[in-house]
Structure formats: C-alpha cells, structure tokens
Design goal:
alpha+beta; Serine Threonine Protein Phosphatase 5, Tetratricopeptide repeat; SH3 type barrels; 3 domains; 5-stranded antiparallel β-sheet; two-stranded antiparallel ribbon; 8 helices; 7 strands; 11% strand; globular
Length: 270
C-alpha cells in the first residue's frame, strides 16, 4: 500500500505544473486522504469501498483535467479494484499502458484483474493475447523506425564494403545488420498495424453484465451465442449508431449494446 500512497503524493507536483495547478493539487490531496480513510476502514467493508470509490472518482477527475501519469492510472485502477469496480480498473490499466507500455506494474495489475472476469465455459471472448514478453523493452514507433533505418543503411554499407574487401568479418557484420533491420522492420509493421486497429476499432471494456443484441435496440433478439456479456470483458468497437455500439468479440461474434454500458479506451490521448 505504501507505493500506492507515494504515487498519489507524486501527482501533486506534477499537477501543479498544469493550468489549474491549485485545483489539481487539491484533488490529488483529496484522493490521497480518501485512500487513507479506506485503508483505515478495511474492517468495515462497505465503508472502505466507499472511500476507495471516492479515490477512483478523484483520480478519474484528474484524468479528465488532462493529468497524464503512470502513477495516476495505477492508482485509479487499484482504487477501482478495492471499490469492486474492476471493469474500470481494466480500463485504467489499458489507458496507462497506451502511454507507458513498459510499466511492469501496470502489466501485472492488468493480468491480475483480468482474472476476475467470469468468461463463459466455452472460452469465447478471452482477451487478445500479448505475445511480447513483459521483461523485454517495448520500443516506440519512432525508436523502431530509427533502428530499422539505421541498420538498413548499415546493411547497404556493409554490402558495398564486402564487394571490395571480401572479408569474413564484413560478411558476418552485414548479415547481422540485415537481420536486425528485418526484425525491427517487422516489429515496426506490427506496431503500426496495432495503432491502426486501435484507431479503426477501439478497445471497449464492458462495464457491467449486459445483454448483447443482434441489432441496435432492445427490440432485436439477443445474440444466440453470447446473450449476456460479463462485466470486464474486452471487445472491439466496430460501429456507432446513436447511443448504441456494434462490437466484435475476440472470438469473432458481432452484436450491439448500449454505449452507456461500456468504457472505451480511446485510440490516442493528447
């Protein structure tokens, strides 16, 4: 719990650099106090949950006011878990990871809270797999572009040198440069594809158990394969029509649900 409080304290000076520094700092201080009250009330479950819910609401207000911090999303997610609002926690961890993809604690907390989702016995709708090892640094698109361009140029330089020198070491160095250029190029392609997917079909978190319909209204029949989506399920938005979203499960099923019943992970954050 100590790291939780330290993170909130660190938000105060960060918030103080924003336009409404006084108000932002006060909200951060209120969030810290609410969390402390929740810890002190841990033997009184309902009272503790109320304090943790207040903490989550205050952290969410900082997000709305433009504060961006790995600590903020970690604290928001942790408070939401303790307040039994863990779909909101999944949302917070995803938002944090979009900005800070190498934060190991955010990855760990997301994996933990995903275990609370009651998926159907068929296994449909399980989260999208992440094949990137948690321990391996995740370079940004800019970093991948730079690495790919550098080693691509190095490959051509090595190939030209090999023509004149014909040395084994040059051949080996050129082959290594080519491998790195290809690997970084493939990683760049994957990162750009993922970014395009996030723009075209944003990730959506089901906020509460909700029916999935065949069309954009309750007059349509329930989806035959997934009539009810469990809260915390992660799906992709396909279309929006009025107050309804068409979503697609990771297992391929497509249906409609009210926009008010989900949390959308925005494709980018200013």
């Amino acid at each position: 719990m100590r790291s939780w409080l330290v993170g909130l304290v660190m938000l105060v000076p960060a918030a103080a650099t924003a336009g409404s520094e006084g108000a932002d700092a006060e909200i951060a201080a209120q969030a810290e106090r609410a969390f402390r009250q929740g810890v002190e009330s841990k033997t009184r479950l309902l009272e503790a949950r109320k304090h943790f819910a207040d903490t989550a609401d205050l952290c969410l207000e900082l997000h709305r006011r433009g504060i961006r911090s790995a600590d903020l999303y970690r604290n928001l997610g942790n408070a939401a878990v303790l307040a039994d609002r863990w779909p909101e926690a999944i949302w917070a961890y995803h938002v944090g990871l979009k900005l800070y993809p190498n934060d190991a604690e955010l990855h760990a907390q997301l994996a933990f809270v995903r275990g609370k989702v009651l998926y159907p016995a068929s296994g449909k709708g399980q989260p999208e797999p992440d094949y990137w090892p948690v321990w391996l640094y995740r370079p940004t698109v800019l970093e991948l572009s730079t690495i790919a361009a550098f080693f691509y140029a190095l490959t051509w330089i090595g190939a030209a040198a090999a023509v004149f020198r014909r040395a084994t070491r040059i051949y080996l160095a050129t082959a290594i440069a080519l491998l790195v250029a290809v690997a970084s190029g493939l990683a760049l392609w994957h990162a750009l594809e993922q970014a395009d997917l996030d723009r075209q079909a944003p990730l959506v978190i089901v906020a509460e158990n909700t029916p999935l319909y065949r069309g954009n209204g309750t007059s349509y029949p329930p989806h035959p394969d997934m009539p009810i989506l469990p809260r915390g399920m992660e799906v992709r938005q396909q279309h929006r029509r009025g107050t309804w979203l068409q979503i697609r499960l990771t297992s391929g099923e497509i249906g409609w649900l009210p926009r008010s019943r989900v949390l959308v992970v925005e494709p980018w954050i200013e």
